[in-house]
């Protein structure tokens, strides 16, 4: 008898929904789903990989850069990162750079302005 696979996690379901929305050109919906995925599993490296892929496909789409910033910012809160370490500084710097790049494409984004500060 074949073993049933485990149902997808909330993060995986949100990621799949985000991918489908992105492919359909529903970018605001995609951001909402990807944000849910990041919040559901902030320790997933997939969040950063997804953001990088999003930027590769649509480099001037500000929300892709915002997702990258959120992925970096979330990573700094992980237990494996020692507070005050150089690695943590690099992640914080990566988040700020990502938000600043997003602001270059969408300068009125209150979310990215606040996150970059």
TrEMBL record:
Keyword line: Repeat, TPR repeat
Residue stretches of each TPR repeat: 11-44
Matching InterPro entries: TPR-like_helical_dom_sf, TPR_rpt
MF terms (GO), sorted A to Z: Hsp90 protein binding
Keyword S-adenosyl-L-methionine: no
Top-level taxonomic group: Eukaryota
PROSITE patterns per UniProt: TPR
Name listed for the protein in its UniProt record: Uncharacterized protein
